[in-house]
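Hey forum,

I'm writing up a methods section and want to include a predicted complex as supplementary material. The small molecule is zinc ion. I've pasted the protein sequence and the SMILES. Can someone with a working setup run it? I'll credit the forum in the acknowledgements.
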Amino acid sequence: MSLKSHLIDCYRIASFPARKWNFAKLKQAGQVPIYSMFYHRIADKHPNPWSMSRAEFEQQISWLQQKFDIVDLEECQRRIRSGSNRIPTVSITFDDGYAENCDYAIPMLIERKIPITYFVTTHNTFDQVPFQHDVDLGQPLATNTMDELKEIARSEFIEIGAHTRTHPDLGKIHDEARLIDEVITSSRELEAVVEQKIRYFAFPFGQRENLNAAAFKLLEQEGFLGACTTINRWNEIGGDPFQIARVHGDPSFARIRNWLSFSAELDKQPHFDY
Ligand SMILES: [Zn+2]
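Reply by user p_vandermeer:
Happy to help. Structure tokens for the complex are below, copy them as they are.
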């Protein structure tokens, strides 16, 4: 264990009574918030900041199964909308569309009957072009093929979601035609390939500065059920169910346990205003 992980664990254990008290209060009030997690790539080779090893992933998923009800995004939204929740709840999502997820993570999740939403960038998968963020690291990595996406989409536990055409920073796109192409047209093309209605969207990068109010409006108008961000926070019961904040599936188990233990620090950042 690294020194940093050790320090996080010490902090988590020292603050355990406060967290336990906080959780008890939330539970009593029927206000236990909903977590959503996002992962990218599960693989043992070519580690980078958006990958984690098979063993790290297995450890996190097993822990989540013990501590949480793992549900799909639609059930998360139902619990948010209901105005009352006492069950620790999490949903699991993946962004981008990396080929290696088909080797271990996806079969493992299907075997455990864990629902996931798998957000795909169409240009990089359909045209087999590595992501710029991997090229920039000098490590172009394989993306899912169209055939893999079709196969994944056939599982009853996997819903395919949209993640734009070229993975741009949508916070910087103000041209309406470009925005429609990245957000809507590419989603319709994905729909045609996987032969499944695309109901959810995840903003590339997903931090506050990468979000776009016009894109939120377009998604609502076009009948999407929700849009995911990466603002590191939980989702309050009774809050806006359309905008779903997600916690990074960090390789550090200590950090994940710290974030997902109902510590009040996870609701400090506001949602995006659109
Ligand atoms: Zn992405």
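Some notes you might quote in the supplement: The radius of gyration is 18 Å. The pocket of zinc ion is lined by residues 95-96, 163, 167, 204 (CB under 6 Å).
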